[in-house]
From TrEMBL:
Keyword Glycoprotein: yes
Signal peptide interval: 1-21
Localization of this protein: Secreted
Organism: Callorhinchus milii (Ghost shark)
Start and end residues of each CREG-like beta-barrel domain: 26-188
InterPro entries in alphabetical order: CREG_beta-barrel, Split_barrel_FMN-bd
Any GO CC annotation of this UniProt entry: extracellular space
Pfam families listed in its UniProt record: CREG_beta-barrel (PF13883)
Entry's family note: Belongs to the CREG family.
Protein name: CREG1 protein
Keywords assigned by UniProt, alphabetized: Glycoprotein, Secreted, Signal
Main location: secreted
């Protein structure tokens, strides 16, 4: 893009260029938007189904997890069996996770309420699985480069690397209702630019 064209862009858009995931996809390119959110968001809210005894047994339970996809589209997490939601996942690994541009400055700078369809979000459904072998090494690099303090989390907590194995994807990127994307469409999106290891927000 020519320097003069850059000057004409609104500031929030300028901030989004060159950051992980490239620039924000236009409305309607929903698979790209889903990958953009996965590349950009540093945390997601994950809902599990509670396996605990009363109160709350069998009910949805929402929590926050730090994520990083390393540019792959796969949300990786660093989990410990001591964590309350992880205990749910050990008895029922199905989960839903949402990532939203409300995590970034984008919605606030545009004046979009977090619940506005213009404050784009992706909702995933799938199962949380431990990762092994070369995928484990990839997950570690993706997570520790983006969340450096993870390397210092208590060694006796039994931390392990996991992913949300995505089976269903919903994207809200504009008015007119939620749109669906298949995992095949999602994983076939070509990254727009090299994903940087460290984000500044
Ligand atoms: C990791 O290995 C275990 C058993 O060795 C297997 O059950 C599990 O599905 C593997 N996870 C992945 C993501 O391949
Ligand atoms: C992982 O997700 C794929 C779809 O992306 C699905 O075909 C597969 O069955 C899932 N595996 C598990 C163990 O849930």
């Amino acid at each position: 893009m020519a320097p003069t064209a850059l000057l004409l862009l609104p500031v929030p858009l300028l901030l989004l260029l060159g950051a992980p995931g490239g620039s924000i996809p236009p409305p309607g390119q929903v698979a790209r938007m889903a990958r953009f959110l996965s590349a950009r968001c540093v945390w997601g809210s994950l809902a599990s189904l509670s396996c605990r005894r009363a109160p709350g047994a069998g009910r949805p339970f929402a929590n926050v997890f730090s994520v990083s996809d390393g540019g792959s589209g796969v949300p990786y997490m660093y989990l410990t069996p001591l964590e309350i939601s992880v205990q749910d996942l050990q008895c029922n690994p199905t989960a839903s996770m949402v990532m939203t541009l409300a995590e970034t400055d984008y919605c606030r700078k545009h004046g979009y309420d977090p619940q506005s369809p213009l404050c784009c979000r992706v909702i995933f459904s799938g199962t949380v699985m431990k990762v092994n072998g070369s995928e484990e090494a990839f997950a570690k690099d993706a997570l520790f480069s983006r969340h450096p303090e993870m390397a210092d989390w208590p060694r006796d907590h039994g931390w392990y690397f996991a992913k949300l194995n995505i089976t269903n994807i919903w994207v809200l990127d504009y008015f007119g209702g939620v749109k669906t994307v298949t995992p095949e469409e999602y994983y076939s999106v070509q990254p727009q630019s090299q994903v940087q290891k460290n984000t500044d927000w």
